[in-house]
Amino acid sequence: MQKSTNSDTSVETLNPIHQGTGPVQMRIKNANSHHDRLSQSKSMILTDVGKVTEPISRHRRNHSQHILKDVIPPLEQLMVAKEGYLQKAKIADGGKKLRKNWSTSWIVLSSQKIEFYKESKQQALSNMKAGNKPESVDLYGAHIEWAKEKSSRKNVFQITTASGNEFLLQSDIEFIILDWFHAIKNAIDRLPKDPSSPSRNLELAKIQRSSSTDLLSHYDSDIKEQKPEHRKSLMFRLHHSASDTSDKKRVKSRLKKFITRRPSLKSLQEKGLIKDQIFGSHLHTVCERENSTVPRFVKQCIEAVEKRGLDVDGIYRVSGNLATIQKLRFIVNQEEKLNLDDSQWEDIHVVTGALKMFFRELPEPLFPYSFFEQFVEAIKKQDNNTRIETVKSLVQKLPPPNRDTMKVLFGHLTKIVAKASKNLMSTQSLGIVFGPTLLRAENETGNMAIHMVYQNQIAELMLSEYNKIFGSEED
Fold first, then answer.
1. Would you say the pTM of this structure is higher than 0.70?
2. How far is CA 140 from the centre of its chain?
3. Using an 8 Å Cβ cutoff, are 309 and 352 in contact?
4. Cβ count near 444 (within 10 Å)
């Protein structure tokens, strides 16, 4: 041991030979008192050679950026990775076994969760705005595997969540179910393995809130909901980043800016990130994509019905199997080659049900909103010839996709009426079926019952006077 002294202090260090793994100590000896020497002793310990702990920054702006990075998930985490129809059965809830009950669901996969919708995509979005949230599956800590033994159906796989929920997903089309299996597996594999990490809890709390206002108003309550050890860590970070009101306001302001900058559905569709589909798309959009004025699917359905359904009792009135109709819809939306002569579409009521669903789910009905009141006023006219001429004039003013599709559809329905003695579907019966499907007011009010009467009468007139309304000027 070596010593070095002067009049005021002396520095004592350990022999360098013993410095390999032990502590390096430095004592500052003050000549005045032994107590002062002890109080001024300091120790500096290197636990891992070459590893230096980064200092905690106390700069508020830096911490505001850090907390924003933790609170705001990357944009791709909010994006839809995949969506479509599959057969779903929930077989366990929190570890408790449930009776297996298959149903068709619209599946929406994002980077952190899966959502199950019972209705069509457009109806699901409307219900979400009304506060009805879909059933959701948290993919953190989830497990996915093929489950041949769980069902007699083919192409079945199972998702088991960290909370003990179990779901079976299935499709008869092999490449579709394979694509879904790998998409969900990839999403699970990209997530943190620890399902209880603080960052995961924060992100999950934000994603589950569909309302931007909820995200801001519940921000503080989310912190309280954390487990004690996670809350302590989180509060430690927030202590330096939002220690006063101004910092909290700054964070919320940035959150608001981020939320308002999120791309709209329309912009995502324009960029090709979300593909337009047949069901639920505007009529003119479908026609433009197909370079036609009558959707291909409408023509295919009409051809199938005229080929093997004109004599069927209750055609268009009798409902087909909803699960099979949804399956047909799924195939059409995936732009797969459709063969309605296939044995799986043997029930003609499935084809007619899908055709009615197509028209029912148009964002704007076949009779455009702007023409609704004009058609109602036309049908109110007492003189039959005046009524026909007024309706004919309105039809000629319609956009080409609406006018041509209307002509093809009602021309087909006149063939149904011609076989009324066998199929028992009169003009009045078809008017009741198609009136509310093809015509509706943009904003329904208390006179819905009256509107329904006019809707049926307009459809009946289009059928009974088809040749006069859709004929040439010389007719």
1. no
2. 18
3. yes
4. 9
